[in-house]
User: Fold these one by one.
Assistant:
Number 1:
Amino acid sequence: MDKADAVNIAQRYAGAVKANYNYIKIILFGSYAKGNFNDDSDIDIAVIFKDYSNLIDMQLELMRLRRKIDSRIEPHPFRESEFELSNPIVNEIIKYGQEIKINAAK
């Protein structure tokens, strides 16, 4: 699998998330965004929401949705208010991440 495949998987996942939840942004990050992936790499995807009531419940829901797309997806939910540069993971996402847009034409 290459980066283009990871982006395609992330787009499909974004479509599944959009069908169930309103999110602000979905960003591919980690090894596929940086280009240093290998055969064992997961597909890190940040999902930024305006808000949600419970982090664990949201994480479980996002994990459930990944089963329909690809088990290598590793979803990372964030509240918009928590998505700030002082968080090292957020800093990496902003620096290296690629925002995922859903293809309108199928």
Note: Residues 87 and 93 are 10 Å apart (CA to CA).
Number 2:
Amino acid sequence: MTTFFLIDDDPDDRDIFEMALNDIPGNHRLVLANNGVEALNVIKRDKLFLPDFIFLDLNMPLISGKDCLQQIKTILRLENIPVIIYTTSSYQKDIDETKRVGASHFLVKPTGLGKLSSILTDLLNNKCDTYCLGE
């Protein structure tokens, strides 16, 4: 079973992500966090929690996605887990900064469910060899 950890404060975006994941063949589990603080609490509380992919929004309350990414990257058991920035931002500054901090990919939230499902499928099949996905 592949575990996806989605950290996003927008309930609509969480729902869309879940629908896209349900469109993909296979057995998948989705763990949700409403913000970076909640995500870090989940990670620190459950020492056995080891998702296959972490999807992280940039613009969230309490702690920014960039700050959350920096903290995630200090947790040894997560150092090899791909962190995909999942955001509405397409600013080059955000792309450059998150890559420097250690994100594996940068994905501007697609407008269509099919596009997101296709990108998730490519990730599962190791067919994503560029930093910016969905372009």
Note: Residues 2 and 124 are 9 Å apart (CA to CA).
Number 3:
Amino acid sequence: MTAAHAVPDVHAARLASVREDLSKKKLDALLVQNRADQYWLTGFTGEDGFVILSHKHVVLLTDGRFDETADREAPWARKVIRQKRTADETVRELKRMKIGRLGFEPSHMSVLAFGELKKLAKSSRLVAASGIIRTRRLIKDAREVTLIRNAIHAAEEAFRRVRHDIRPGMTEREVAAKLIYEMHVLGASEPAFGPIVAAGPNASLPHYEAGNRRISRGEPVLIDWGARVNWYVSDLTRVIWLDSIPPKSREILDVVRAAHDRAIAVIRPGVSAAAVDNAARAYIRKSGYGKQFRHSVGHGIGLDVHEGPGLRKTNKDPLKAGMVVTIEPGIYLPGVGGARIESDVLVTERGCEILSTLPLV
């Protein structure tokens, strides 16, 4: 993955905000292992690294392959080149920094790594500190929104180019490969995820992997794809037909589109994530397809394809300005196919803005 140029003021503000959280949680330092979190916090893009953030210092531990990368991308961090892939250097730095209470993300540390660190770092107390950076990442600044817009543009333009080339007899994998190629040409470092191209009855499988089925006239082709540009991603879904749309397919597509619009209509600061899900779910249920809507209505996007907030019926957390979410209701009929429409939406101070621009159908 390529990165946008690091911005000193941005990273200084992020470091300060996380240090505020350390104080609130009475932690001496935070061990950052997740690559996206490291990038958000410091600008470092290397594939191998740990960050130790204390109240006064930022220490980046990496290996010799990323020596120059660290100097270029995270000059505000003190660099430590690890000679071997063990916890020894990490423990040495913790002792040097006199770290007592060390926060860590349980979901980003293996049981083996935890055991090794706990055994060696006897002078530090390991404290589970879930979600410190993940929570900070929920709200995107103007620069992040611009990067997401760029990722949306690359994905949408790739779709426009590929849509004109789709013909009967092409396989799902061929379409997926063309999408990936065009996204690369348009500036993406990689697809945000492996594109879902589901033809005919395969469209009833929400997370289907593109296979060798050949596309035929008169059946749906569900395409779920996204681009990663400068680390930030897009996530979109559309359904196409190569001929006229059969009545049943038209019916469920119309229901999905109406549910999509109803969910977006309620998005604004203060509204709960559950309320957004319910706006779509209630309409689909009223239309007789409640049991065929088998996932939440959406999720956050940013550095990860799936991040907070989760727009599900159990999440009572309020939306806040600066969040970027997907809205993707769907109906899935086994043996027949399915329909899903997905847009990327920014929560604004007064409501929301649909960032994606492709026609819904």
Note: The chain has a mean pLDDT of 94.
Number 4:
Amino acid sequence: MVRRRFSMLVSIVLTSVLLRAADIRDAPSTTLPGFVLDEATIVAMQAAMSDGKVTSRQLVEGYLARIDSIDRSGPCLSSVIEMNPDALVIADAMDAERSKKGPRGPLHGVPVLIKDNIDTADRMQTTAGSLALAGSRPARDAFIVSRLRESGAVIIGKANLSEWANFRSTKASSGWSGRGGQTRNPYALDRNPSGSSSGSAVAVAANLVAVAIGTETDGSIVSPASVCGIVGLKPTVGLVSRSGIIPIAHSQDTAGPMARSVADAAALLAVIAGVDPADAATAGSRGLPDYTRYLAPDGLRGARIGVVRSSAFNLSDKVLPVLESAIGVLQRAGAVVIDPTDVPNLGKTDEAEWEVLLYEFKADLEAYLAARPGTHARSLSDLIAFNRDQSEREMRFFGQEIFEKADRKGPLTEAAYLDALRKSQSLMREGIDAALSGQRLDALVAITNGPAHLTDLVNGDAYTGGSSSPAAVAGYPSITVPAGFVHGLPVGISFIGAAWSEPVLIRLAYAFEQAARARRPPQLRPTVDLSPGPCSVIGSLAHAPTSRVVPGVFK
């Protein structure tokens, strides 16, 4: 659920090994009898199934074929950590039910991929990518999984992720897990997919599934969505249940939709949002039965949008043309743009947020492990011991210093925790609220993050800047939409709003998406073309931004 903020050198040698250029090919298209699977939307799938042009079984079979072709072999995207052995059986049942009773709703028979930190009480495992939980299975479905099953969706498998949602080491490579290996960015296979919802983003981008579920604590939905050229929606904390999801921090954790379009993300959000008695944060959930009603092509007309250009985001000048282009789209669509817009308190919550995450991680994870049946690690100390014992498999590339720091924290009654929580949440909520109310804004916009950096298992992630923290720390919603490219690598723009403003953000993001038309499907290229010169990849690193590093802080 967390993405990294540490700037590191890139290992060119390791990158060349990862390429395996002989296995790389352009993305194959998939045409089923009577239906084209590539870039297919939920609405198109439903129409085709209702008209008898395609079945849910055929959709699942088509995606399974693509997964076998480009995820398990060929370019080996490694985005899917485990397939659901019962997916075809479920699809057949949904087809039979449709023929007798009609569809349950928009997701009936639609294949969905879920991140491997979300519990399923079936024949699949839930491991957060860690070998420490391999072989053990939860006793019950996560609340959102139950909602998906009730909607008629077909859970096709589990997505790979940054192990433990990027909360094990500051030297980690996003998209790597002990169970699933390194996920690759489909726009350039030597580039990183970001994280921690790496597999969810890559699978959706590469047309391996219709839609996916990701999770976020700070950036882990919107960041991989941005660098993989898709839509990612991080809801208000409390809109979507977290019960049955392996946690980092209850004050910031949430699950959310990842899709190729705002319309598909809106349809998925309606299914997973709602009150869950097992998650007290959802008691005030303002989940709606239909978010697609807010999909208005003219949704930007008359809207007041504030552009945030804060140096706290640490973004490279390389993304400025994308931002300027996006501003032009907003203005031509009829929005009133206030540029720049100041958001008080940006950059003032890093240390407090870090303290909150460490405290809550230990408390929340140990509560989750204690409630999970079977023989497995029961505490953070147990996990630390397991990783040391299995260091050749689990710590070959990076350690577990975050685990060790969190394990030294005390209970959530300590003053250090309570003070940090109060500071981080109040400062960021006050800042966003002040910016919105002061200019009578409908939303803020900012570049989501920089383009994908080179994957480097030796040194770990290289931070390229990002704007996820304000909404993450405040617990407010944000949605990222494809906005453009830098050297062929996708860059998204985020719409950030007040608590429970998902309908507004969906309206604005949809109108922007329809006007910008910025998404282009990936072609599974081995690397970014930075010609001329054999040293162009190395030369490109000269423009990598220097990270604003706060000691002991990352996201």
Note: Residues 237 and 475 are 5 Å apart (CA to CA).
